[in-house]
Amino acid sequence: MARKVSDEQIIQALLECDTQAEAAKRLGITPQTIVNRMKGADFIAKYHNTQNELLRATTRKLANASGKSADLLIKTMNDTNVDLLVRIGIAKDILRLQRDFVSMDELQRRISQIEYDFIAKQEETEQPQADNTQYKTFFSTD
After folding, report:
1. pTM
2. What band does 129 get if pLDDT is binned at 50, 70 and 90?
3. What are the residues whose beta carbons fall under 8 Å from the beta carbon of 10, sequence distance 6 or more?
4. Dihedrals φ, ψ of 129, to 5°?
5. Which fold has domain 1-66?
6. What is the pLDDT of residues 69-106, one digit of tens each?
7. Mean per-residue pLDDT over the chain, rounded
8. What residue spans define the domains of the chain?
9. Residue 29 and residue 9: Cα distance in Å, rounded?
C-alpha cells in the first residue's frame, strides 16, 4: 500500500532537499508521486506561497541584522589594530554598498514617477478633468 503524505510534507521535503528524488526518498514515496502532485495548481500555489514566506522570513532576519553588520564593518574599519589591507577592503565594501543603495533609491524614485505619469495619462484619457492629486501624494518623489 502506498504511503500517504500531505502536500505540506512534500513541500517541506522539496524545500530542504536538493532534488525531487532526494525528497521522495526522504518521504518514502516515489519521485513520480512528487511529479504528479506538482501538476496540481493548488499544490503549486501552496509551494510558491511557502517559498515566498521563507524568503520573507529570511529577508526580515537580514534586515534586523543589517544595523549590527554595519556597526561591525565601521568598527573594524576604524580599528588601527586590524591589518591595513583588511580595513581598505572594508572601506571599499562600504562605498560599494552605499553606491548600490543610492542606485536602488534612484530606480525606485524613477519607477514611482513612471507609475504616476502612467496613471495620470490613463485618467486623462478616461476623464479629461480628472484630479490626480491623490496619486501625486502617493507617488511623491520628495
Report:
1. 0.53
2. low
3. 23, 27, 29, 33, 34, 37, 43
4. -105, 25
5. Arc Repressor Mutant, subunit A (1.10.10)
6. 999 999 999 999 999 999 999 999 999 999 999 999 99
7. 88
8. 1-66, 79-142
9. 11
Return the C-alpha cell found at 15: 524545500
In 3D space, the residue among 99, 134, 91, 87 whose CA is nearest the CA of residue 115 turns out to be 134
The DSSP line for 33-101 is: HHHHHTTSHHHHHHHHHHHHHHHHHHHHHHHHHHHHHHHHHHHHHH-TTS-HHHHHHHHHHHHHHHHHH
**C-alpha cell of residue 36:** 504528479
Length of the chain: 142
Q: What pLDDT sits at residue 132?
A: 55
Give every CB contact of residue 131 below 8 A, 6+ residues apart in sequence: none
